Amino acid sequence: MLFPIPNRLRTAGRSILLTSVLTSVLLLGLQSLGWLEPLELKVFDQFMQRRVDLAADSRLLVVGISEADLHRYGWPLRDQVLAEGLAQLQRHSPRVIGLDLYRDLAHSPGEQALALALQADNLVAINNIISDVAAPPGVPPERVGFNDLVLDPDGVLRRSLLFVAGGDQAYYSFALRVSLHYLATLGKAFRYDAQALWLGQVPILPLETHHGGYQRADTRGYQTLLNYRSRYSPAPTVTWSELMAGAVAPDQIRDRIVVIGTLAPSLKDVLYTPYSSDIETFHAPGVIVHTQIISHLLDIAQHQRSTFSFWPRWGEGLWLWGWAVVGGVLAWRFGHPLGLGLGSLTALGLLYSLGWGLFLRTVWIPVLEPSVGFSLALAVTMAHRVFYTYSRDLPTGLLNRQAWLSHLDQHLSPSAQRQHLSPPGIMVVGFDRFKQVNVSLGQATGDRLLLLMVKRLRRVIPRTAQLGRVNGDDFALALRQSNQEFLTNLANAIQQALGEPFSLNNQDIAMTASIGIVVPQPQQAYTAENLLRDAQTAMYRAQRSGQTRYQVFAASMASAADQFTLETEMRHGIAHQEFVLYYQPIVDLETGDVAGFEALIRWHHPRQGFVSPIRFIPLAEETGLILPLGEWICRTACCQAHQWQQDFPDHPLMISVNLSGRQFEQPHLADQLGQILRETNLDGRRLKLEITESMVMGDVETAIDLMLGLKALGCKLGMDDFGTGYSSLSYLRRFPIDTLKVDQSFIRNMGGSREDHEIVRTIIGLGHTLGMDLIAEGIETLEQAAALRSLGCEFGQGYYWAKPMPAAEASALLSASPLALESRSPRRGVGDRPIIHQP
Fold this sequence. Notes:
42% of the residues lie in helices and 17% in strands. It has 29 helices and 31 strands. It is globular. Residues 1-8, 381-389 and 828-839 have low confidence and may be disordered. The strands form 7 sheets. Strands 23-24-26-27-28-29-30-31 form an 8-stranded mixed β-barrel, surrounded by 5 helices. Helix 9 (313-333) packs antiparallel against helix 10 and helix 9 packs parallel to helix 11. With 839 residues, it is α/β, with parallel strands linked by helices.
């Protein structure tokens, strides 16, 4: 006789079955949307960080270009320097040399020597198909591999694209090319089919969209999950200087794979890896990541390490449903909170232990999804998720992030623009050390302190300001006033108000705040997310600078993704000649004649039109692209000056070119400029190089030596923006400067400010005493030009005469008889009308 199933057990069974099925279906639905993928990837990172590092791979050697190497050899490395380094390596018979440097542009001198070095059969070069960065000229396709680094949506490198089988051509990654050249010497052949890549007899199965914790990954081509060897360099590392000095032992090179790439942090060639959150400052350079991939491929081919394997989808589904069942069983089995808590912790511990144990055997299965399924089935509720549908932050009553962004979107909408409403000023206030206070005093006390801080914040900010809580301890302000002076004064007031201690539980608690500020431009297009991101970026910069600081957002603080995109577009622009020079006339204040032109760079972007130099010049300085760009500016300006020299032989003109700080630091700058002058046939006395005070005050003696080298070419030297820096007069008289340029900030106010008028008069007198001539920049009115002429200033420059113009318009200006600008000589009457009008 069968005993009837108890009602409680029947009810429990139906509840467990229904809860586990609904939970599994819900999570599978979320999985199809990719919502849980970022969290699964974080678990993968944690597992990777907990693994024991392997020893450095003796089959490889990394030759890294360090920060010290950049200062010594300049960047990019000249072709001659690179050719010498390659020759130094070839003397010791490496198996393979992997050149992990983009060399699509020549960097003379030494082009022929480098071309010869690149013909070596054991050298593999790199290109970037997506960014249209070609391989070095002359390197055959069988020795070229594409950049194989694949970033996940969170910017972390966990995958490698090894191979793409095209219709007529197969594409090999850089790491695969290097590995195959090495394995070929061991007699291991390479082939591929629809199922796998084959290194000898070892298959590498391609990664699929739903493998492991991935849910919506783009896995086109033959991709593999990267099995990192170590959180640090996977192979012995030497610097470029050590290589050039012969300090690398031959045994470190002989029969090894040598990978050459950059390690210098200033070049921003770094990538987030699974270890980045474990080691705060660890972001792997590209050459280190490529070495990781090469080491992994060699281990696979030689049966030392395997690729990651995965469960089939039905297996993962059963795994998910099984843990939902366990959660339901525990909910019915334990009635006491203590027993339920201990049982839940034990179950979750077992789940993670199984995932960790399989991971050590290179099997990656989802861990977070069954954890969530277990928790949902255990709690039988998703109530804590509904706060996403509300507009308020519960502890403070303020707008939450999404609601605050929606409010800001309304002020940025087309209707607001049609009403000519200027974009609001944005501030993000971050309370320093709030998390530590919250941990030490408890959540309840932390919430009370948070309310006190918000109350004090409201006393300071305008009534019309929209305040929201956008993060745990970050609060955002949208203000109708958007001028910088108002925003910085408000930041000072907020910091002063928060500086007074808070009395809580009979104790005084001192709090400070770091503030990020965004000052929007009226004609610029913005999105709410970008404004908040920029303000938070500025706030984080203020926190790094020290507590109780505020920082105004600048273009150089843009996110890494934006900077990478702009850098890639700049590389494309340099290679495809998207940059042009405009020329602004420099006028003789006595005669009104054009005495010369200043060459100014412009970027004509194919999609965005003209891009402001304020956006791309700081990034070019930071990434080193200013060096090829600056060389192009000098060469183009000298060519144009030579053309004018031939077209107008009776009208001697001076061409002025601005030097950047990175250019001025180059040890071979004088040689480079000398070669340009020879190639363009320009008289060196017709070229004026403009530098700033800050560029020469770091290492004064070295700066003087470099300036004397430039003077030896016949070039003139001008000091730009004089009066705004921090130069010492004792040094100024030692500098071989020919011209001082009076900064436009003094010129702009000299008519209404006696102090600025006296400053300008003093600078002009100082320049004449030191035997220099003077150029006043930023002249916009006849009164300013006349006043400067009366003070003895020789030359002027500004919109009063003309805006910067293309070379053709400048040539037309010089061809005019009489010169079109003579009618704007400061000797004419104030009421006379100008002839030339620039758009």
